[in-house]
# Entry
Amino acid sequence: MSVPTVTGSLVVVGTGPGRLELMTPATAAALAHATDLVGYGPYLDRVPLQPGQCRHASDNRRELDRARLALSLAAEGRRVVVVSGGDPGVFAMASAVFEAVEVGEPAWRDLDIRVEPGVTAMLAAAAEVGAPLGGDFCALSLSDNLKSWATIERRLKAAAEADFVIALYNPASRARPAQLGAAFKLLRTIRSGATPILFVRAAGTDQARVIAATLDDADAACADMRTLVIVGASSTRRIGRWIYTPRSERS
Amino acid sequence: MSVPTVTGSLVVVGTGPGRLELMTPATAAALAHATDLVGYGPYLDRVPLQPGQCRHASDNRRELDRARLALSLAAEGRRVVVVSGGDPGVFAMASAVFEAVEVGEPAWRDLDIRVEPGVTAMLAAAAEVGAPLGGDFCALSLSDNLKSWATIERRLKAAAEADFVIALYNPASRARPAQLGAAFKLLRTIRSGATPILFVRAAGTDQARVIAATLDDADAACADMRTLVIVGASSTRRIGRWIYTPRSERS
# Structure
């Protein structure tokens, strides 16, 4: 008696922050080997075309739909790659895929699923300016699409009080213009006005642009959807054109 | 009248978590182009040999000395690459390089210094088990070589109370066998005993090994120098053989 087997596969990858030279060879190999790519259109556009490969581009907000489509295709025996930017496990598609598995077809649990790590935005942003993440740090998404603003404020406050460096993902969008200003307002009640604030736009691409400010004079309007904001710790400092956080709290 | 110029360069890179396929092409190119590689011996051993290249291997603890050597070589006109594992900006050499610039020769400030981002250990560890870093998270080094244990406890407490996922770097070494046990003890006063605890050893290598436990039964002896420990958030869950943190706090 033969047991029905699932022969497809699903690999969740991140293309890195932008330049192809920041995509890992493991991710490039998964992309080259795929029969189907599923992802947000602009991320798919970064991937070199392969003959005969199907591309399923979708809107940025339909993450669960996209994950379900990818799982269905894999269950049909296709070699599917789900494409995120950055690292797929950081505010990206890997979590949506496992969420779709949890609530979806029981057979999806037997699929061959794998996650390939990548260079997430905060690492590329940090490299553009020096080493601001040199000490303990947090990564916090300012988007309240999936969690409450109260949760965001509570985490921001805790991170600021404990003197973590803070990397703010999704600091602003057209639908959410006010969050970053509110975050700065909260931070000003806790941290010194001299705290370095870095707006790094399009990190890891040829259009990278850095604005270095302090908490006192930081203007939330400097951030857009392509910006990563880094809030320094008390020891974060500038040396020449670089910003870094010493490894030691004693220095 | 000619102005003296500095012609050397210094690139700080991370080789990623282990497998060469997780090193970015940008880092591989910097390594291939270098006249001198400076780094901790085991990281240098991962890098393919180039004819005529000088390798300056050193002990793991001599980070500032290593940074000074690299800067001196660059000031002599060499093309120097400082080699870390993972990402060079996360508990690694980039911060030490800028610290050495700050306290070192004034001419070092004019050097051509660049940081290349890489895949840091927590991203590779997360990929091995699913998507545990799918929500807001912190990266915290448990080593008290460069900061006080009181600071570590304060940050751990803040992160646990605010329900961040927590990635613990340097959870244990022969010289520091007790820290991780003390960290679990503190976490048990704040977080549910059912909180997932993941011990991921040698993530991103062919010897990767995962131990999934809960805060109640986690044994600090499962960690060594090559282990990354991930402490889940309240929403972090297991589905089949994967562990993930949903993007939404409401799910």
Remarks:
- Chain B has a mean pLDDT of 94.
- Chain B touches chain A through 78 residues (CB under 8 Å).
